[in-house]
Specification:
- By secondary structure, the chain is an alpha/beta fold.
- It has a single domain, classed as 3-Layer(aba) Sandwich (Rossmann fold), CATH 3.40.50.
- The chain is 43% helix and 12% strand.
- Strands 1-2-3 form a 3-stranded parallel sheet, with helices on both faces.
- The radius of gyration is 15 Å and the shape is globular.
């Protein structure tokens, strides 16, 4: 499993479901939804626990990639995910990278190299 710029605590992200939905729409990961659908989506996110999920990945491989200049998700959240995996997560910090890692060719190279080495 690979996690890019992943928060370890989703509660701040779902404090305002309509604001989160607006961000998701802007990122292209959510279509226009009714307020009821957004509330349902927020309830599903509230049920997620990234730290528990990271702890459940090993012994399967876990790659955690985070930008050192991520203004949306602090680097300490990536470290918390790696800690939750009890040292079995491969944490890679990309210097000067922000939050939108999928647009960074260095991150794509890290992910592809990790996959090609059979670490996935």
């Amino acid at each position: 499993m690979a996690a890019l710029a992943t928060p370890s605590d989703l509660s701040p992200w779902i404090a305002d479901p309509s604001a989160l939905a607006a961000v998701a729409r802007e990122a292209g990961i959510m279509d226009e939804e009714s307020p009821e659908a957004v509330d349902g989506w927020a309830d599903q996110i509230r049920a997620m626990d990234p730290l528990r999920s990271a702890a459940a990945v090993p012994p399967r491989p876990l790659l955690i990639v985070h930008g050192s200049a991520d203004a949306e998700v602090p680097l300490m959240e990536a470290r918390a995910l790696a800690d939750a995996a009890e040292g079995q997560g491969d944490l890679r910090v990309v210097a000067t990278a922000g939050h939108r890692l999928r647009h960074d060719p260095r991150v794509v190279a890290i992910l592809l190299g990790w996959l090609e080495r059979g670490e996935a």
